[in-house]
Amino acid sequence: MSQLEKALDNRIREIVREEIRQNQSAKSERLFTPDELAKRWRMGDKQAIYRLVKANQLRPVRLSERSMVFTVEEVRRFEEAGGVDLSSS
User: Fold this and answer.
1) In terms of C-beta distances under 8 Å and separation of at least 24 residues, what long-range contacts does 19-25 make, across chains too?
2) Rounded to an integer, what distance in angstroms lies between the CA atom of residue 9 and that of residue 40?
3) Helix, strand, or coil here: 18?
4) What is the pLDDT of residue 18?
5) Would you call 49 exposed, middle or buried from its count of C-beta atoms within 10 A (0-12, 13-18, 19+)?
6) H or E element: which one contains 69?
7) CA distance 43 to 64
8) Greatest CA separation found in the chain?
9) Which of the two residues, 1 and 89, has the higher pLDDT score?
10) Which residues pair with 68 in a beta bridge?
């Protein structure tokens, strides 16, 4: 990855973090990162989330080729469809 690509990737991440913070503080549309979903669903790591995306079971909002987030609606849709068994909690 070139320095320019790294710089762009870092800037995108900063923008996403700021957007997530603003959404949380404004109590508006919540966005979840792959890490947050992995923790929420006790999946170990975000690679499990990426596998769900690759299998078309979970639909992300793509921020770039390498960055994605998930809306509350998509998380609810997935959970209500039985995508994650939380009964063991």
Assistant:
1) 20/69
2) 25
3) helix
4) 82
5) buried
6) strand 68-71
7) 24
8) 46
9) 1
10) 62
List, for residues 4-60, the tens digit of each pLDDT value: 888 888 888 888 888 777 766 554 568 999 999 999 999 988 999 999 999 999 999
Q: Which residue bears the tokens 């990737």?
A: 9
Mean pLDDT, residues 59-69 taken together: 92
CA distance 27 to 43: 26
In a domain, 24, yes or no: yes
Task: Report yes or no on 52 lying in a domain.
Answer: yes
Q: Is the pTM of this model over 0.70?
A: no
Segment (H or E) for 32: strand 31-32
Residue 37 lies in a domain: yes
Whole domain around residue 22: which residue ranges? 3-80
